[in-house]
Amino acid sequence: MTTTLKSKLHDDLNSAIKARDELRSSTLRLTLAAITKEEVAGKEKRELSDDEVLKVIAKEAKKRREAAEAFAQGGRTESAEREKAEGELLDEYLPRQLSDDELAGIVAAAVEEAKAAGAEGPRAMGAVMKIVNPKVAGLAEGGRVAAAVKQRLQG
Questions:
Q1: CA 137 from centre of chain
Q2: What single DSSP character describes residue 71?
Q3: Burial call 8-46: b when 16+ CB within 10 Å, e when fewer
Q4: H helix intervals, 19-141
Q5: 32-88 confidence digits (pLDDT tens)
Q6: CA 134 distance to own-chain centroid
Q7: Is the pTM of this model over 0.85?
Q8: C-alpha to C-alpha distance for 25 and 31, rounded to whole angstroms
Q9: In angstroms, rounded to a whole number, what is the distance separating the alpha carbons of residues 137 and 133?
Q10: Are 85 and 65 a contacting pair, CB within 8 Å?
């Protein structure tokens, strides 16, 4: 029987508790709570697939990065460091992110494809994003993708 990502998180949580790793255990607890919340959202309870669990983990990691930035700007370096550490811990469970070069290559191909379909200039943003998003789902953050597409269409 294959283990699901959620069960791996549970196993890692148990190991972290036994090792008295406070940062890891609290981060995994919060993430598992977010997964459970997602499972009971809607009309009936359901089990999330690994892809859906990955989306929840990605959302939680993004929250940590944004909180770390906010704390850093507010001069709360200790809180910023903790949030950053939690975000890095969650990144271990996510697939490797695309490098800037890999992302630029995918965007360039999508821009050419959109131009062939008749979409040009900054107004082609939506058409290009429709082509790019399925290819980079889970491998690059939406803001990064949008910035790369915008830059490619302008330059």
A1: 9
A2: H
A3: ebeebbeebeeeebeebbebbeebbebbeebbeeeeeee
A4: 22-40, 50-73, 77-91, 100-116, 125-136
A5: 999 899 888 878 888 888 888 888 888 888 899 899 999 999 989 898 899 999 988
A6: 14
A7: no
A8: 10
A9: 6
A10: no
